[in-house]
Amino acid sequence: MIATFPASKSEIVNRIYEAGVVGAGGAGFPTHIKADSRAEIVIANACECEPLIRSDRFVLEAFHEEVLEGLHLMMLATGSSKGLVALREGSSIPDLEKRLASSPALDIVRVPNTYPAGDEHILVYEATGRIIPQAGIPLDVGVVVSNVNTLLNVSRAVHGRPVTSRIVSVCGDIPKPCVTEVPIGTSVGFVLEATGNQVDLKEKAILLSGVMMGEICEDLTRTVDKRIGAIIVLPRSNRVVISKSLSVETMVRRAASVCCQCQLCTEICPRHLMGHAISPHKIMRAVAWMITSSEDLAGALLCSGCGLCGSYVCPMALSPDRISYMVRRMLAERGIRAEAVPSEVRPLRAWRLVPHERILNRTGVGIYERDLNFVPISPPGLVRIPLLQHSGVPASPKVAIGRHVSKGDLIGEPQGLGARVHASIDGIVKAIDDFVTIESK
Fold first, then answer.
1. Which residues, 6 or more positions from 335, have their beta carbon under 8 angstroms from its beta carbon?
2. 298-317: per-residue pLDDT in tens?
3. Dist CA 42 CA 418 (whole Å)
4. Quick check: helix, strand or coil at residue 405?
5. Residue 26 lies inside a defined structural domain of this protein
6. Structural domain containing residue 405
């Protein structure tokens, strides 16, 4: 850890903003906003509950000093007196545990090895006993949660290093699964080829960021951004791939004709079990009956998108998760928002947690579960860097076509809630649209 830290809260916040740090756990919320808040506890989220992925574990093993430095910086910025590193039960990282033994303000907390242990509402409850209100955020109960990759970037930001790369797990039904680090804007196809894992999209499918919460990628030119932590290859015959490949029309038609209202989706829903007013089976019923305005539909605003209802429990192989996401987006477009109200954990929750091993077995990906070694790869000759890879508004380009840029140069500045974007390789700017395309020379 560095001997001296920035002199003030504002300096920490400014350095995080200047470096373009966003939440690396998936949502991409600008981290300088979290750092500019006040909290009692900061949690480093290393639960990594999605199957197959090992990015967080690699970060903790290889960069634990920097992660703890980032945790310390977030504690200083938010005025927190306690920092927790959250791991799933059964996880052991000896160097990290030895380092924490001498830090009275820092500690490890182990949460049940269940899915979705990394969900903020679940994590905060398991780690602290505090219950975030439905539609609320951890700050509502005095907590800030940051992914360990985010904290690594916070540490690097203080040393003047903007976010220009992403640590990615490349895993699944491939010959050479690994963890690697790639420049932001690198194509998925390049990453697979560079690691010796070329894919024929006729036979196999690619999921980005997760088996359960990830999305199908049908375009090998799709680029890795700050939020994408995994490239997962699975057979087209895998049940999760089949479910995620269904069209909206097919999902709705099946909901109308097949859903038997067994309520299993609701009984297993992690947010429902936390006391939130979401009942996926009622959302399915409302969609099937073409009801466009009801309290049942409003529950979709509370969906975390964990995928348990669709990829794990539905006996009819329906997609309550994807339908809930569709409804949530529709309601958001109407300007409808859920209100944060207190919730109370349901008594049966402890008996309805889903162990990690059951997720592996039910989704059919257990045969691909293994430790992943780090494999360095050479940078690509061309990157397409998205101007929107965070929550909020897209960044506005700050470069012109034909300009030479160096790795780390500012190429995008937000005009509202958002994050800065930086060049990830040295080269010439070739095109500017929703992306800044840079070709190395």
1. none
2. 999 999 999 999 989 999 88
3. 22
4. strand
5. yes
6. 381-441
